[in-house]
Write a structure and sequence with these properties.
Catalyzes the oxidation of either pyridoxine 5'-phosphate (PNP) or pyridoxamine 5'-phosphate (PMP) into pyridoxal 5'-phosphate (PLP). It is an enzyme of class 1 (oxidoreductase). Its EC number is 1.4.3.5. By secondary structure, the protein is of the alpha+beta class. It has a domain of about 140 residues: Electron Transport, Fmn-binding Protein, Chain A (Pnp Oxidase, Chain A). Helices cover about 25% and strands about 30% of the residues. It contains 6 helices and 10 strands, in the order ααββββαββαααββββ. Strands 1, 2, 3, 4, 5, 6, 7, 8, 9 and 10 form a 10-stranded antiparallel beta sheet that branches. Strand 9 and strand 10 form a beta hairpin. The longest helix is centred in the N-terminal third of the chain and has 14 residues. The termini are far apart. It binds flavin mononucleotide. The site of flavin mononucleotide has 16 residues, from strand 2, strand 4 and helix 3.
Length: about 230
């Protein structure tokens, strides 16, 4: 074969980190440690993650399922709690937005490596009100508002320049004015029916405590094997 770049290419050989890592940074998680409400417990762990110096303690993986039955996942930011649910904001017309409109069920996962903790939530998802979405939109920097207005999230774009030019055109069109809240942008709220708190322990004997909704709308806590 000719001496092309492809012929000379050597894939990187990256050794995976030590898989015998023992999780011992935190004390065990006992049933008696848990607050009565799982979203209060989650907020306590979010505060711990913030205090541990995580850069984005609110980053969570959101899994959705398309109408072909295939799951997809991506990271979004937790932007608060309301009406018994956990909130994030996105483009309703992008992939996750369309999947959630067609199938309003999702799962969320936090992982805080500095604390060796994971939290998993599952439940139905609903759109937040226009008022709530507008209030959050207005709290964002102008550049972020412009980005939300200009991006056709998940669509294929030919070049970076096309995106930048669109953003610039909107910046000029709205000079001296507020960027309008786009119809296709706003919040989703996931109201969990189950929330699992996972604390890493040594020997892979991790603690897993899961809140599950009772018929009476109260919570029961069950312990799961690691
Ligand atoms: C740390 C982090 C935070 C993010 N936060 C958000 C967010 O809050 N909302 C959002 O729409 N996308 C967010 N993204 C981008 C998404 O991961 C994803 O690329 C985008 O939403 C498009 O996903 P989709 O095509 O599945 O709809 C974030 C990405 C990272 C890495």
């Amino acid at each position: 074969m000719a001496d092309t770049v492809a012929a000379r290419y050597e894939p990187p050989q990256v050794p995976m980190p030590n898989t015998a890592q023992q999780y011992t940074r935190n004390p065990p998680l006992n049933e008696s440690d848990l607050l009565p409400e799982p979203l209060d417990q989650l907020q306590a762990w979010l505060a711990d993650a913030q205090n541990a110096g995580m850069i984005e303690p609110g980053a969570m993986t959101l899994a959705t399922v398309g109408d072909d039955g295939r799951p997809s996942a991506r990271v979004v930011l937790c932007k608060g709690f309301s009406d018994g649910g956990i909130c994030f904001y996105t483009n309703y017309a992008g992939r996750k937005g369309r999947e959630l409109s067609a199938n309003p069920e999702a799962a969320l996962v936090f992982w805080w490596d500095k604390l060796e903790r994971q939290v998993r939530l599952e439940g139905p998802v609903e759109r937040m009100s226009r008022e709530e979405s507008l209030a959050y939109f207005r709290s964002r920097p102008r550049e972020s508002q412009l980005g939300a207005y200009s991006s056709q999230q998940s669509a294929i774009v030919a070049t970076r320049e096309e995106l930048d030019a669109r953003m610039l055109a909107h910046d000029e069109a709205f000079a001296g004015q507020d960027i309008p809240l786009p119809e296709h942008w706003g919040g989703f709220r996931l109201r969990p029916r189950a929330v699992e708190f996972w604390q890493g322990r040594s020997g892979r004997m991790h603690d897993r405590l899961r809140y599950v909704r009772n018929e009476t709308a109260s919570w029961r806590v069950e312990r799961l094997e690691p």
